[in-house]
Design goal:
The relative contact order is 0.24. The protein has 4 helices and 2 strands, in the order H-H-E-E-H-H. The radius of gyration is 13 Å and the shape is globular. It has one domain.
């Protein structure tokens, strides 16, 4: 499995235009995602440098953790919802696969 296959497992939905309410401290990302963003590092635990008043500057190439927000039970967005919400268990399985990607 690769990143793009994992991303396809996450239900998509359209964010409100200009919304950045889900943006917060960066939790984790891997080298492949950094290459997609076009940077060598991001400050883990600090406010995302790609958050701006009109939304997310890297929405198309955002890391998996950003894609999970709003799509998994417990990480719901209060403004919009996907047609299908992943269960916490499904979210955990995706995260497990994600962390296994780095080991290959």
């Amino acid at each position: 499995m690769n990143h793009k296959q994992l991303y396809k497992m996450i239900p998509e939905f359209n964010c409100l235009q200009g919304c950045n309410k889900c943006c917060g401290p960066m939790q984790f990302f891997d080298e492949w995602e950094l290459n997609q963003i076009g940077t060598l590092s991001l400050p883990i635990g600090y406010e995302c440098p790609y958050k701006y008043e009109k939304g997310c500057k890297i929405h198309k190439n955002r890391p998996l953790i950003c894609r999970m927000f709003g799509s998994v039970e417990g990480l719901e967005c209060k403004y919009v919802k996907p047609e299908t919400l992943l269960t916490k268990e499904q979210g955990k399985l995706i995260m497990k696969e994600y962390f296994n990607l780095e080991e290959k």
